[in-house]
């Protein structure tokens, strides 16, 4: 049982790490777009 728990924790840590990196890139890209094009976007588009 302890081995299964350790394996599950290792898998969870790996998946969490693998998902965080792309999400950081997406967040950074969105921030850049908001800074550059923010004033040009309509309020409706800014809501997304």
Describe the structure using short key phrases.
single chain; 48 residues; mainly alpha; 2 helices
Describe this structure in words.
With 48 residues, the protein is mainly alpha-helical. Helix content is 83%, strand content 0%. It has two helices and no strands. It has helices spanning 2-37, 43-46. The longest helix has 36 residues, at 2-37. The protein is rod-shaped, with a radius of gyration of 18 Å. The mean pLDDT is 89.
**Residues in helices, as a percent range:** over 70%
Low-confidence stretches: none
Number of strands: 0
Shape assignment:
rod-shaped
The helix-strand sequence is HH
- What's the Cα radius of gyration? 18 Å
User: What's the rounded overall pLDDT mean?
Assistant: 89
- Main structural class: mainly alpha
**In angstroms, what separates the terminal alpha carbons?**
45 Å
Measured by DSSP, the beta-strand proportion falls in under 5%
Number of helices: 2
Largest sheet features: none
Write the layout of secondary structure elements.
Layout: H1 2-37, H2 43-46
Structure at a glance:
With 48 residues, this protein is mainly α. Helices cover 83% and strands 0% of the residues.
């Amino acid at each position: 049982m302890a081995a299964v728990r350790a394996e599950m924790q290792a898998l969870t840590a790996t998946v969490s790490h693998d998902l965080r990196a792309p999400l950081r890139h997406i967040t950074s890209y969105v921030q850049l777009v908001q800074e550059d094009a923010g004033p040009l976007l309509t309020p409706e588009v800014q809501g997304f």
